[in-house]
User: Which sequence fits this backbone?
């Protein structure tokens, strides 16, 4: 029954879309559309939670007489779909709540409102689809609605370019998925997932499907080197949509990958995990290095999505390795780590994009070099943004740390894997994961420090005002979730148990009953972590210190000018900027990865021209993978353009020649 | 019930011990360094006197410092104190040692550093910024190196819990191992970097452009500065304790040790601190500070050593 209720919810969202065209004209209509979306997504989230907890063993499915006549449209909610439905609709509800305030500032609401509920509906449909046809149609629907949202502010040229690149990459990804489903369905065209599950593809075919799935789902999730569209498209959309694209849609892509590789494709080969692990490790480090070089706040966040997708893929890759080698308990641990990070990332990435949206609204700026000192003018936004920064940097006691800790625990189980390739790859991937975690912390010191701390760099930053209460409510809600998932992770791990059970056969040991609400992945003598106690201890130690010092020593405070070693400069331009903050890291990592060069122009003494420092960065992946393809296509179209200007006789002879060639081919084939 | 009270008492004693001993370790290192340079040096108890004086002074806060700037010293202190009280020093039967394993302890230190780096940016001065940006650069190499060391030890001991690791090493079934040697070397490099000692950073510097840690906390004064100083001392003690607990666990009292065993534990812990302090002072006197952009090579070596040690364990269980 759950699937029927969910489909009603989706239908409500679909109906809301055309209504929004009419409603969008008035400011009150904006509130109505987002309010309705909020109610529907909350309901859908409840339904998904119920199906995850109450009906974990029962699968509800339905076939509707839509789509291909001999197939119909199959929809189904099992544990995996239910979990991802929770992620989608929780993110959707938070975004709708945020948009109740944020959406009022939209200057062309009719370009956003109709597509917003449709986009939410599409993501729900992808996760519920139970045959290849409805899956792909929903996937395309999701791509197109989000594309429309990306170019909502089409007056900016860079947004149009972002939309163009996004559309190309989305079609490319769908093509790969189409082929992979085609191979899975086989020649008799059994597109229903049930039929695919029952058939067992040969090893070569499975390998091909795996590669296509990595490419197809990966291009949507943003794995390196298929990430190029993501940092262009995600920031271009309005901020609540950016949050959905980064926090939720990439997770739908991960869902597609998990569905194909863990569920449909049958038992894994051991080398599959090598591909996934290598992709994950490279994606994690490259994503965070790109992010460190950015000074556009929203683009920095988008690149960080790339990093987190890498971390998720590392978890999934480890799970595949353990599953292939018949170590189900370890596989359950690794899979739980990956899926828990899916949940966590959707929470804190949405929170951070909301914060960036609030800043954008208050100052009109996305460039961190034009911000600064916002903690004085937007104290509440600053606080919740800080919570998001700590969470995403994988620092205890918040939630990002727990999922990375679980991933590390899974890595520590991997010496028992028998294959040599994995023995070398897994420690290297572990080092990459550790490196990306440390760099992420550096990156968010920069993001928070430059935008919110220090002194205001522009009049726009001086004039900033605290954002509205609806937006704040959405951000506080997500920040609270970050804390809760960080200090009592056991409940969240237990909630994932039915999912891992359905995918690898077993689940992690039950955590809710462990003393003091610790989490113990394998055995207490091996490893345990208690976020709640750590949080309470830090809180207690800090309060005791503060109380004792204020009572016993001194609580006096004077304000004065900054010390700055005796040379405080009144100009706010003397502060560290985002690019100067990143300079040491750029020197250490960027000279090889980005061919970073610093060119200093120092005029001779007495000259009145200003000194200049130019930083050159090259995106080697773009140069190596994308630019040649673009040049080749441009060259080919330039040449083929000639075909547009033929006479009718020439066209007819072309048709005739084509016919002759086809007949010849047919004759030889037979 | 008696067991629980005992464990609580042990945990409390540990928390107080690390808090009270850490300035002494700093003072000891300073004294030895001064003697090595044929100076008289400040008295051994000078760090305590400094802390008390700082605690009594007013805080002079920069005009545009935010609420975060005032909260951060407490966060940093609390984080490092909690981390330090979860590392077995004289006895491994700590009440709450299971609430955070070594990975979590490292991450707690990472949290403290995250906030301290933010404090460097809060007032909006160039010295704060230079300190923060260099600190995070150093951390971006030291932290993964530390995690690789943790991996090595965890693979040897089959656990990431410090008390289990110590017990495993103490059981004597490991003997000498190549991977442990590499890990020890890497851990020493990381400990030097994390504690802002020579050759990475100079704790006694007054030349602004060479400072990393000191530049970051330049705007702090009074009780805030006292807390930061105490946290640095605690962090040094913590790293010495970690090295002692993992590579020289001799004398550590077991989970339900008697009183004499605990006394032996405290005595051996003091000896370990003294030896570590002596060696640190010797090393710091013997070596010159390196340029900031030489640091990545130094720390990169630690990272590679850690990775190599882990790889060895993945390839063979006996190396």
Assistant:
């Amino acid at each position: 029954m759950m699937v029927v209720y969910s489909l009603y919810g989706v239908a409500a969202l679909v109906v809301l879309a055309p209504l929004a065209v009419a409603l969008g004209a008035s400011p009150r209509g904006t509130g109505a559309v987002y309010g309705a979306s909020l109610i529907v997504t909350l309901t859908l989230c409840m339904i998904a939670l119920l199906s995850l907890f109450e009906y974990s063993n029962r699968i509800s499915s339905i076939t509707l007489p839509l789509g291909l006549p001999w197939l119909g449209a199959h929809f189904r909610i099992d544990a995996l779909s239910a979990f991802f439905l929770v992620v989608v609709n929780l993110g959707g509800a938070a975004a709708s709540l945020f948009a109740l305030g944020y959406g009022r500032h939209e200057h062309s609401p009719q370009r956003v409102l109709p597509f917003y509920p449709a986009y939410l509906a599409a993501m729900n449909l992808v996760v519920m689809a139970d045959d290849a046809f409805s899956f792909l149609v929903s996937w395309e629907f999701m791509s197109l609605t989000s594309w429309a949202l990306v170019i909502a502010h089409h007056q900016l040229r860079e947004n149009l370019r972002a939309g163009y690149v996004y559309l190309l990459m989305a079609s490319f990804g769908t093509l790969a998925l189409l082929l992979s489903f085609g191979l899975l369905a086989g020649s008799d065209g059994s597109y229903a997932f049930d039929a695919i599950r029952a058939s067992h593809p040969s090893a070569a075919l499975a390998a091909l499907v795996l590669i296509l799935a990595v490419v197809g789902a990966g291009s949507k999730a943003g794995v390196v080197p298929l990430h190029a569209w993501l940092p262009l498209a995600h920031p271009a959309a309005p901020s609540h949509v950016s949050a959905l694209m980064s926090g939720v849609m990439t997770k739908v892509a991960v869902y597609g990958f998990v569905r194909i590789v863990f569920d449909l494709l049958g038992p894994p080969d051991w080398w599959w995990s090598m591909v996934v692990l290598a992709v994950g490790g490279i994606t994690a480090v490259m994503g965070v290095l790109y992010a460190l070089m950015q000074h556009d706040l929203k683009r920095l966040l988008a690149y960080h999505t790339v990093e987190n997708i890498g971390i998720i893929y590392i978890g999934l890759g480890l799970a595949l390795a353990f599953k292939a080698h018949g170590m189900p308990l370890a596989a359950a641990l690794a899979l739980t780590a990956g899926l828990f990070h899916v949940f966590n990332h959707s929470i804190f990435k949405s929170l951070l994009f909301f914060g960036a949206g609030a800043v954008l609204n208050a100052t009109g700026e996305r460039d961190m070099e034009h911000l600064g000192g916002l903690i004085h003018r937007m104290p509440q936004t600053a606080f919740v943004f800080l919570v998001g920064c700590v969470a995403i940097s994988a620092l205890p006691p918040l939630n990002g740390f727990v999922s990375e800790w679980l991933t590390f625990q899974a890595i520590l189980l991997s010496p028992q894997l028998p294959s040599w390739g994995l023995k070398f790859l897994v420690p290297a991937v572990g080092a990459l994961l550790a490196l990306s975690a440390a760099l992420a912390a550096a990156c968010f010191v920069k993001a928070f420090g430059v935008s919110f701390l220090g002194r205001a760099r522009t009049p726009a930053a001086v004039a900033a005002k605290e954002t509205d209460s609806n937006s704040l409510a959405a951000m506080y809600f997500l920040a609270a979730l970050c804390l809760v998932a960080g200090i009592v992770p056991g409940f969240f791990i237990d909630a994932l148990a039915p999912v891992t059970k359905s995918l690898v056969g077993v689940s992690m040991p039950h955590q809710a009953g462990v003393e003091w609400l610790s989490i113990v992945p394998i055995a207490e003598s091996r490893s345990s972590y208690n976020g709640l106690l750590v949080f309470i201890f830090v809180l207690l130690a800090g309060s005791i210190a503060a109380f004792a010092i204020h009572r016993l020593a001194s609580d006096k405070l004077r304000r004065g000018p900054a010390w700055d070693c005796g040379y405080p400069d009144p100009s706010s331009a003397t502060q560290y900027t985002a690019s100067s903050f990143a300079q040491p890291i750029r020197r250490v990592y960027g000279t090889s990865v980005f061919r970073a060069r610093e060119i200093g122009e120092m005029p001779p003494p007495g000259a009145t021209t200003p000194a200049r420092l130019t930083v050159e960065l090259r995106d080697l992946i773009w140069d190596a993978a994308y630019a040649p393809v673009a040049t080749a296509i441009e060259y080919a179209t330039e040449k083929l353009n000639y075909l547009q200007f033929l006479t009718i006789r020439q066209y007819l002879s072309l048709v005739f020649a084509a016919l002759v060639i086809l007949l010849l081919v047919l004759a030889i084939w037979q | 019930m008696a067991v629980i009270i005992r464990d609580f008492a042990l945990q409390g004693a540990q928390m107080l011990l690390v808090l009270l001993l850490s300035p002494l370790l700093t003072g000891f290192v300073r004294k030895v360094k001064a003697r090595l340079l044929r100076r008289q040096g400040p008295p051994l108890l000078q760090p305590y006197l400094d802390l008390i004086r700082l605690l009594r002074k007013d805080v002079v806060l920069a005009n545009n410092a935010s609420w975060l700037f005032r909260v951060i010293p407490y966060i940093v202190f609390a984080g490092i104190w909690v981390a330090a009280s979860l590392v077995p020093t004289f006895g491994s039967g700590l009440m709450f040692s299971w609430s955070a394993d070594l990975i979590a302890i490292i991450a707690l230190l990472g949290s403290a550093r995250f906030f301290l780096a933010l404090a460097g940016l809060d007032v909006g001065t160039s010295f704060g910024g230079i300190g923060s940006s260099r600190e995070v650069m150093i951390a971006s190499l030291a932290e993964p190196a530390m995690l690789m060391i943790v991996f090595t030890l965890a693979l040897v001991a089959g656990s990431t819990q410090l008390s289990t690791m110590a017990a495993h090493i103490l059981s004597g079934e490991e003997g000498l191992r190549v991977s442990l040697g590499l890990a020890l070397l890497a851990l020493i490099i990381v400990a030097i970097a994390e504690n802002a000692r020579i050759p990475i950073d100079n704790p006694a510097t007054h030349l602004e452009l060479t400072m990393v840690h000191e530049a970051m906390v330049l705007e702090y004064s009074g009780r805030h500065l006292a807390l930061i100083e105490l946290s640095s001392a605690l962090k040094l003690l913590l790293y010495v304790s970690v090295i002692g607990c993992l590579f020289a666990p001799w004398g550590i009292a077991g989970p339900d040790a008697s009183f004499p065993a605990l006394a032996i534990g405290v005595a051996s812990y003091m000896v370990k601190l003294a030896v570590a302090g002596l060696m640190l002072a010797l090393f710091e006197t013997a070596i010159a500070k390196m340029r900031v952009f030489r640091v990545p090579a130094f720390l990169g070596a630690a990272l590679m050593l850690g990775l190599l040690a882990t790889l060895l364990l993945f390839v063979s269980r006996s190396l």
Chain B touches chain A through 87 residues (CB under 8 Å). The longest strand of chain B covers residues 59-62.
